[in-house]
Amino acid sequence: MSAGLVQVERFDCRVAFAEELAALAEADQRIVAVCNDSVGSSNLVAFAARFPQRLVNVGIAEQDMVGVAAGLANGGLVPFVCGAAPFLTGRAIEQIKVDVAYSEAKVVLCGMSPGFAYGVLGPTHHSVEDLAWMRAIAGLNVVVPADPAQTRAALRWALEAKGPSYLRIPRTKVPELTGVAPEIGRALLHRPGNDVTLLCAGTTTPEAILASEALAEEGISARVLQMSTLRPFDAEALEVAARETGAIVSAEEGVLAGGLGSAAASWLAERHPVAMRMLGLRDEFAPTGGPEALASYFGLTAQGIAGAARQLLSGATSRNGRGGGSR
Amino acid sequence: MARWRALRAEIGAPDGADGKRLSVVADDSRADILRVIGEAGIGHVGGDFSVVDILTCLYFAVARLDPARPDWPERDRVVLSKGHAAVSLYVTLARCGFFPAEALASFTKPLSPLSGHPDRRKVPGVEASTGPLGHGLPFSVGAAIAAEIDSLPRRVFVVLGDGELQEGSNWEAAMLAGHRGLGALTAVVDRNGLQQGARTEETNRLEPLADKWRSFGWEVDEVDGHDHRALVAALERPRSTKPRCLIARTVKGKGVSFMEDRQVWHHRVPTADEIAEALSELRLGHRATRR
After folding, report:
1. B147/A contact by beta carbon, under 8 A
2. Contacts of B150 in chain A (CB under 8 A)
3. How far apart are CA A198 and CA A206, in angstroms?
4. Confidence (pTM)
5. Helices in chain B by DSSP H: which ranges?
6. What are the pLDDT digits (tens) for A130-147?
7. A79, A288, B193, B220 - which has most CB atoms within 10 Å?
């Protein structure tokens, strides 16, 4: 893991999630929580104790969970659907597409333990396609908070947003990203820079910040731009970064086919193409390993991101397609 | 609203002494269905005809609705889970006054709000955008739970196809409804015995169907799905502590002799001659004593 981060305290965003959801539910009687036997893993134990009539546990049945949420919304309630991200997004994708997004049902889908959070449980439990899948569905907001403050802000934002939202709630502990206000819906500038942009989302954000600091010591000025949402997509900030830095490294805990890097590349390709390196899963299922091991495997670490930036700036092309990370 | 109330008052009782009867309304709807599908060149006439009596009873005799206020919070929910029978729903909604009947001519025309499957965003009276099958029951379970959470008396009716019951999502929802004892929920199965390709029992058999629902914690009744008096009586039965499933024995293509129980009429569009012959049969049926 990256040196320096050992001293920084890290937090489980699910704690902030649970507290904020309960606070919102206290103030707004329409809010209910829906889960799939995931009361513990979705941190809904306190919610269940405080609002027993407002937790709907459907058991291990994701399609039913999302369909029921659409029906609850029809009844004037605001459901927060909580379940492990791989099963919520994969098993119930048609319900998300039809009953939620196409039907314009005001539902907040909360994907818990995304990415490699369940790393050692194997790829059936990895949620790496969720950003791509959810991004492909018209009208569905895709929110990727990176720390506890952003998680709270994400819940408030989703409650106020006009349409439905998918929130990717990290389970892997993350440091607090102080210094930048948690403005959901915009790209958040964590570090200014002019030589290269490090584009990140969620858990790759602290790694990108550390990479920027390491590069600074080498005289490379690396801008760190975190996308707090993939929809809405802050294309303006991205385009400014492309114009001003001329090179972009993207890093995401997810597949490259349709996620953060794809979103950036497809926007810029039509308007202001720049050299890019995309870090993430390139057409393979991850091996077994904990979140840190898998992040390292895919180069999604400060070391890997900084290495990719150096390669990009030096004009070198990667031979193994895996960026600067160690295998 | 006043017009619909008056119409409903006339026909609401299945054997009301004056005015129209539900069966006449249903056959008027069959005629509309034929014209709409003939004009558009697309539709599911067989499945429309097996379900239209059920919808007529729900919309004209049973469900608490206000066509002038499709978003009235206290309304009963009526969900057509077998969304491919959209035309039967559209003609019923138009007759109720949810939207002008003139709009029916736009069915499946470019940019029309009347798509091949009902769109709740665009068509007043449509509660859920169904079509893929297996979506209406989970939605209806959620709607029933919402009524429970808010302690409201509104009821939820969901109409399902029988082939549709091969979709597993229905059974997730059925299990939950039984577990929670959702007495406000009534599922009506349009048991016409046919699906797209063949008979249900030759494809992936559903029987014993009543037993399946009972084992999931539902009360089950079986009724003739073309007998309006029996349908209304069954639908109006006072609620209990269990959800209710009404297995409505129906005939695909019911109402037109050359369409009845013939699998080809799942998606085949009748020719102009066939429509004329069918309309003539329906007209004759009005004059004869029915049921």
Report:
1. yes
2. 75-77
3. 11
4. 0.94
5. 2-11, 22-40, 45-57, 86-96, 136-149, 168-180, 200-203, 209-215, 228-235, 272-287
6. 999 999 999 999 999 999
7. A79
